[in-house]
From TrEMBL:
This is Fucolectin tachylectin-4 pentraxin-1 domain-containing protein. Residues 1-22 are annotated as: Disordered. Residues 8-20 have a biased composition (Polar residues).
Length: 79
């Protein structure tokens, strides 16, 4: 996994609150998508997520090198 731990950014970051998350103030930042954990339940604080109500959301990754990539796997939230 050449993406593991590499710098990632997203257009905005959702900050958890007691209504949606067990952890008040938890930032669902872009780095959660490349931390090596494949837990797909958002409520386990393991998914990156952009802020609600934002249009044209994006996420990006810097692999910091050139690689020949044959497969990309994206895990979608399961909840």
């Amino acid at each position: 996994n050449v993406a593991l731990g590499k710098p990632a950014n997203q257009s905005s970051t959702y900050i958890g609150n007691s209504h949606w998350s067990d952890t008040d103030g938890f930032p669902y930042d872009a780095s959660l998508a490349v931390d090596g954990k494949v837990e797909t339940n958002f409520h386990n604080n393991s998914c990156s997520n952009t802020a609600a109500g934002k249009s044209s959301a994006w996420w990006e990754l810097d692999l910091e090198n050139l690689y020949f990539i044959t497969t990309i796997t994206i895990y979608q939230r399961s909840d």
